[in-house]
Amino acid sequence: MKTIYLGLSGDIIHPGIINIIKEASKYGNVLVGLLTDTAIAPYKRLPYLNFQQRLEVVENIKGVHKVVPQQEWSYIPNLKKYKPDAIIHGDDWTSGFMSKERDKVFAFMKETGGEVIEIPYTQGVNSSALNEAVRSLGTTPDIRLKSLRRLLEVKKPIRIMEAHSGISALIIENLEIEKEDGLRCFDGIWSSSLTDSASKGKPDIEAVDLTTRLQDLTNILECTTKPIIFDGDTGGKPEHFIFTVRTLERNGISAVIIEDKIGLKKNSLFGTDVTQELSPADEFCEKLSIGKRAQVTKEFMIIARLESLIAGFPVSHALERAFAYAASGADGIMIHSKEKSGDDIREFCEKFRAKYNNIPIVLVPTTYNQFTVKELSLWGASIIIYANHLLRASYPAMMNAAKTILEKERSLEADLLCMPIKEILELIPGGK
Ligand code: SPV
Ligand code: MG
Question: Which of 276, 388, 391 to mutate to test the pocket of ligand 1 (most atoms within 8 A of CB)?
């Protein structure tokens, strides 16, 4: 019997997949290379099911002879390892970013005397439509909460974008762009205190209680499945922080970031005239430990945010605190700065990484925005937060439309600046 190799992610099983398995089994034993989360994460959104769950599903599909892990996005390493007689693939890889991989596979199989079987891609079942269907079924708080840690294990860095409403969160949930080497998407959502308060026309001072923040978050939770990192300001008093942690967990939030400031909180990016007192380091350590002890799940993350550089202290000050926070149980360190050069952040990352290789570093490159994801990753960043861009982008767009209507005394010209009504209705799940 010949061996026919088929690479699959096995997350959503649809008739197209059953068809290709059936076709493959006409040629020989079907050897499925099941893509691991690590193989998938840099190129596509993380599967809904984890590897073990997907393995269980695929192993039990009629016609599948054996399943082996495919650790890389490229088929070549497994083709070298398992030396199948043929590989089978849908003909959808002739265009788009997979076409380069197709060329490599053809060359490799030719060289080794194997065969490439291409079958017509099953029309009418496209996985993005299926993805949408799964998304509309939603997620559970438990799955969502755990998904940030899952992502951290397989993808570096993780891209997080701010959302302040259901509609902005839908952009983060759905947007995918195709680049030469694969798809790009945002991995999760930043619930920002700045954009949440600004969208309500209020200043970014610490919320008295969580209730109003959670009301907006509920809208985001209802229409998305991706992990959420919550901007917890200072975390309030330790006694209150306990309840914040548990409330966030109950809602399926993956992480909270709290900052080491005291007094009436002001946004960190305000001008230099605004000074903010830092919390004594030992008190903040205590708050972190209390929070860690309070959490119910083992996956929830409490990330410590350092304001040393914002407050004008040197990198050494931030590092000393970062080490203390890590020792107190912080699951990650966010270092913030409004310095344009990025030199302070780079130095911090290098020195922190020299001691802790595994604790995630979170960066918010609002001012040092000239650095790409790749560059920040090379510094040691694990999570990159674009903290306010959707809100900042929406205001000038709204202003422009409003001005045009006043100027032209009608809305005809402004319509060119707006999305069609039909599109906005279709955008909202259940709106069609
Ligand atoms: C926020 O988005 O609310 C933040 C990040 O706390 S920053 O505004 O950069 O301080
Ligand atoms: Mg904030």
Answer: 388
- 79 three-class SS: helix
Question: Could you give the CA distance from residue 341 to residue 345 in angstroms, rounded to a whole number?
Answer: 9
Measured CA angle at 191 (ends 287, 256), to 5 deg? 20
> What's the CA-to-centroid distance between 387 and ligand 2, angstroms?
9
Least confident of 29-38, 189-198, 234-243, 263-272: 263-272
What's the DSSP call for residue 353?
H
C-beta 335 within 6 A of ligand 1: no
Whether 234 is in the pocket of ligand 1, judged by its Cβ within 6 Å, is no
| 73 and 39 Cβ atoms separated by less than 8 Å | yes
pLDDT tens digits for range 74-131: 999 999 999 999 999 999 888 888 899 999 999 999 999 999 999 988 766 666 666 6
**Could you tell me how many residues make up the chain?**
432
Q: Tell the residue nearest (CA) to atom 7 of ligand 1.
A: 268
Among residues of the chain, what percentage have pLDDT more than 70? 94
Rounded-to-integer distance, Cα 176 and Cα 159, Å: 13
The first and second tokens of residue 88, run together, are 């089978």
d(CA 166, CA 409): 31
Specify whether the CB–CB gap between 337 and 308 falls below 8 A.
no
- Residue whose C-alpha is closest to residue 33's, from 15, 54, 50: 54
Q: What residue type is assigned to position 128 of the chain?
A: S
DSSP letter for each residue of 278-289: BPPHHHHHHHHH
Contacting residues for 327 by C-beta, under 8 A, at least 6 apart: 285
Residue 55, classed as helix, strand or coil, is helix
Q: When comparing pLDDT for 66 and 178, which is higher?
A: 66
Q: CB count, 10 Å around CB of 99?
A: 11
Closest ligand 1 atom to 366 CA = 9
Q: How far, in Å, is the centroid of ligand 1 from the Cα of 48?
A: 30
- Inter-residue contact 62 to 36 (CB < 8 Å): no
Question: Using only C-alpha atoms, what is the Rg of the chain?
Answer: 24
**Are the CB atoms for 390 and 171 separated by under 8 Å?**
yes
- The predicted-structure confidence for 200-257, as pLDDT tens digits, reads as follows 898 888 765 688 888 889 999 999 999 999 999 999 999 999 999 999 999 999 999 9
Q: Which of 195, 199, 204, 307 to mutate to test the pocket of ligand 1 (most atoms within 8 A of CB)?
A: 204
| 358, 336 Cβ separation under 8 angstroms | no
Nearest ligand atom owner, CA of 191: 1
